[in-house]
Amino acid sequence: MSCHQVLRENGHRLTPQRMLVIEALHNADRHISAEELYKQLHSRYRYANISTVYRTLELLKQLNLVTEADFGEGRVRYHVAEKGHHHHLVCRSCGKVIDLEDVALRPLKDTLLQKYGFDADLRHLAISGKCSECRKKKRGA
Fold it and tell me: Which of 3, 112, 136, 139 has the smallest count of CB within 10 Å of its CB?
């Protein structure tokens, strides 16, 4: 089901600003910040403001249409949920982002459910640490 259909079915209007935010999210080839979305929106609709972008993102998040991830750079980035669940390993030293397959976290999800009775939402995570290259540099120093 498309974002437009989900919004309509939940009683939300499809304003020009919302449609442009959704379009920019779908066209993004990577995770995108609210500020980057705002720049795109404002270039096409000069009456747009950043609060509209944040409100739209919050609504899309509540409807499970977007996921958010914090790559440790001081802002959250967004991704269209229908593009699939995936995770990221983010190097604290160099900022490198490595994609992690969903299956890698399945044992963690199972353990949390069995041991703690906790059904974790592991749809989209960013895990910080150090990549192999930065770990090697530290050892060699």
Answer: 139
Question: What is the residue type of 139?
Answer: R
Task: Give the count of domains, the chain.
Answer: 2
In this model, does residue 16 exceed pLDDT 70?
Answer: yes
The two tokens of residue 41 are 């929106």
What residue numbers bound the domain in which 19 lies? 1-84
What's 79's domain CATH number? 1.10.10.10
Q: What is the DSSP letter of 82?
A: G
Side-chain-side CA neighbours of residue 139 (13 Å): 7
Residue 141: pLDDT band (50, 70, 90) is low
Assess contact for 59 and 13: CB atoms under 8 A.
no
Please state the φ and ψ torsions of residue 44, each to the nearest 5 degrees: -105, -20
Whether residue 93 sits in one domain with residue 28: no
43-68 pLDDT, tens digit per residue, is: 888 888 899 999 999 999 999 898 88
| Whole-number Å distance between alpha carbons of 30 and 23 | 14
Torsion of CA 118, 123, 126, 132, to 10 degrees: 100
Two tokens, residue 132: 């192999």
